[in-house]
Structure formats: structure tokens, C-alpha cells
Amino acid sequence: MTAIPPPERKRMVLAAYKEKQQEKQKKKKEIKKKAHDKRNEMIRRYYKYRRAIAAEEKVKKNQRKLAKTFGHYFVEPEPKIAFVVRIRGICDMDPKPRKILQLLRLRRIFSGVFIKLNAATINMMRMVTPYITWGYPSLMTVRKLMYKRGFGRHHGARIRLNNNIIEKNLGKKKIICMEDLIYQLYTCGPLFKEVNSFLSPFKLQAPRGGMAAKRKHFVEGGDAGNREIYINKLVKRML
Is the pTM of this model over 0.90? Predict the structure, then answer.
């Protein structure tokens, strides 16, 4: 007994449904492949940045060794960035330091920002030294800050950083992942300004173990002012 063919209308509906399912599967595969390629690109960039930073450190190490061998002095390169943390409130603060803190985006106590070091920013920080502490962060400190306390601005809202938010806001600058941000910040790259503007100030907690003396300079046994590489220990206590 021969099978009765389905009506024309039903055959058309089944064909349209099959075509739709095929398009859906094809689109799903394309999205999966795109995500896979994007992830591979992020991994490739991570190793690329790691090799670049390691090569730079190796050059410095060789230069130190050569200087020691020939009895010369090796002058360390000047730091390019600083991490600044506000350690005091607005009590007994003059209008000028308050305005400078607003320009530095340090509007609340224990908030922190990355600053590009030049003559203007150094003079601004000197004028508000009693209210801030700052130093030169290591790569590990920058990485921990970004992954643990990193927030960005998206459509006027403060949103925790992820690769999708980063690509939506900075994709035109070819910045697509967290490692791009970390590299630009640590090396003070050509896109430092755009990256720093996108980032929201870091909201840190009070340091574990308390502070020594807010009103004294760091070299006097206090907390204010430039503490150079020792900012890393402070940030570790505040994460």
C-alpha cells in the first residue's frame, strides 16, 4: 500500500520549518566559532603581553649587571604611573585641596585611581600630600586591583568589568579584554587616557591592621605622601 503524500500546504510548512531550523543551527555554529576565536585571541594577547614585559625586565637586569661589572651606576628609569589612594576625609580641608582631589577623581576616603606621572600631576599630588598616599604599583598589584575591584562606566552606570563590557566601550580602540586594560595601565601605553577614563575609581576597604599616622609623612613613620614600591603592601591590605 503506497503512502499518501501530505497536502501541499503541510509540505510547504514543513519545508519552511526545516529551513528555519537549518539557519538557526548555522547561526549557532557561527556564534560558537566566533566566541572560540575571541577566546583564543585573548589567550594569545595574554602571552604576548607577558613576553613583552618579561623582555623589558630582562633588558633592565642585563643593564644592571653590565653597570656592576664595569663599576658604573645604573640609573633606574623613571616610573610612568602611580596609584593614588585618598586616606583622609574633608574635615579641616581648604577649598583648593578639595578641588584638586575632585580633579583627581578622589571624592571619597579610601578610593584609588591610576595617575600618569608628569610635571602637572606630580605638582597636584604634592599640594594634596596630607590627604593622599601614592606609589608605584607592580604588575601583580595592577592585576589584582582590576580583577577584584575593577568597575567601569557603561551608559552612565558603574558596572563590574567583564570582557563584553570592555569590548562594547573600547572595542573601537581594539581593546577587547581585561588583559588589554592591564597592559595599557601598567606600561602607560598610548591608550592609557582612554582606559583610565573608562574605569571608575577603585573603592577600597580600610586597611587591615589600621593605619600608623595619617597626619605624618611616610618617611616620618606615618601614612601620607609617596611610599614608592611600598604602595603594593598597602593595597594588598585594602583589597
Answer: no
